[in-house]
Amino acid sequence: MIKSIVETTEYLQSKGFDSPEIGIILGTGLGQLTHEIEILHEVSYNHIPNFPTATVEFHKGKLIYGLIEGKKVIVMQGRFHIYEGYTLQDVTYPVRVMEKLGIHTLLVSNAAGAVNLNFKKGELMLIDDHINLQGSSPLAFKGVEHLGERFTDMSAPYNAEINSKFKAIAKNKDITLHEGVYASVVGPQLETRAEYRMLKIIGADAVGMSTVPEIIVANHLKLKAAAVSVITDECDPSNLKPVDIAEIIAMAGKAEPNMITLFKELIKTL
């Protein structure tokens, strides 16, 4: 893997991806942040050596390098999931490449369903902690110790200083920002009523199919990491309706301006 990371990094450096400070992973329906970037360079995933390719139609598939609020950023427009048939090492490979290019901070967004019924569609949740229900770890491979500490500490996977800044920005901008625990499942099927009840019992506030692998690897690489979920549906097992994916995408788009405000205002301070 080290050889592959070096090859990918050198290719991107040759394309002008020069010493980015902040990596950003854009989740479902959250691609409009790219309009806020002074784009200097962009490359499609399928042109990047050793990179996976996004297979979900609403995940674009571009790596973008540019400036936001005067900071050099590298943005994944489209992410990878194990439900697409990728391994957890594939899913997190871009994080390792971004770290090799020079980022010190990783910011992640996603769409999630509310298990905590105090959270409503279109609102945002700052992730304070997570539960990994994906059945494995992106660190569970031979030779991982050559890339970082095998037994990575996860006592505080989400950076407290960044989370405090997010909360202050939300208060200042009058944005509803809940705080809670995100559970990451495999998918791609949505949860059953019994599964939603289980998630509530074990302490989850929201559930999705991403983010946790990237956060684990960010901690493995000693990056500062933070993540925000858009609540796109409410998961009440006593009153569960069929899920409309188009409605989820539309809800993510509705909440997107608040997400963009949070990210832009935060980046000013990093």
Automatic annotation (TrEMBL):
Enzyme Commission no: 2.4.2.1
Main enzyme class: transferase
Keyword terms: Glycosyltransferase, Transferase
Pathway in which this enzyme or protein is active: Purine metabolism; purine nucleoside salvage
One GO BP annotation of this record: nucleoside metabolic process
Domain Nucleoside phosphorylase: residue ranges: 21-268
CDD domains (alphabetical): PNP-EcPNPII_like (cd09009)
Entry GO MF terms: purine-nucleoside phosphorylase activity
UniProt keyword Cell membrane present: no
UniProt-listed PANTHER family: METHYLTHIOADENOSINE/PURINE NUCLEOSIDE PHOSPHORYLASE, PURINE NUCLEOSIDE PHOSPHORYLASE-RELATED
Protein name per UniProt: Purine nucleoside phosphorylase
Provenance organism: Aquaticitalea lipolytica
